[in-house]
Amino acid sequence: MSETQADGLSIRPARPDELSRLADIEIDAFAALADALDVARDAHALPQGVLRRSHAEGLLFVAADDAGQPIGFLAGAEIEETLYVIELDVVMQWQRRGAGRRLMLEAIEAARVRKLNGVTLTTDRYVVFNAPFYRSLGFELLDHEHTPPYLRQKLDDEIENGMDPDRRVAMALWFE
Predict the structure, then answer these.
(1) Predicted local distance difference test score (pLDDT) of residue 28
(2) Are residues 118 and 111 in contact, defined by beta-carbon separation less than 8 angstroms?
(3) Which helix (H) or strand (E) holds 155?
(4) Tens digits of per-residue pLDDT, 71-115?
(5) Residues 6+ apart with CB under 8 A from 36
(6) Is residue 70 a contact partner of residue 63, using CB atoms and an 8 Å limit?
(7) Helices 48-56 and 19-37, axial angle in degrees (round to 10)
(8) pTM of the shown model
(9) How far is residue 61's CA from residue 51's CA, in Å, rounded to a whole number?
(10) Where residue 40 falls among pLDDT bands split at 50, 70, 90?
């Protein structure tokens, strides 16, 4: 994917030297989710190995400010002919300014270029910047019958790690 820029914000592939900064972004962004869910701000960042694999697959994108510093990122993986969104985070001071949407659009375009069947993810059903946000991009909630096994396993893992089973959902944007 090529670098795109607007409003002092650019979307581009992450550079290897930025991977450690992405953990700070994830932890900062978690504060907004913790507030929305009224839970403790006890955040844990993705392991660096996950980010390295996403980078190696060409599925690690950053949103950078006009100084070129990452303020958000999307980590993906190609799984069963889909682009699975592992993580999407934007630092609190940049939230609600289009960075997350632009990162998702970059991932959707990457999936189309790779001729994948769609983009999938798991998320919170209710938080406005989770499932409702993804719905605004064309994603649909998947019922159990239409959820691919790898996404059912992701949901099971999230619930096993303490997430509320009534809130977790799988979503997909299928290409025609």
Answers:
(1) 78
(2) yes
(3) helix 149-160
(4) 999 999 999 999 999 999 998 776 777 899 999 999 999 999 999
(5) 124, 127, 128, 129
(6) yes
(7) 120
(8) 0.88
(9) 10
(10) very low
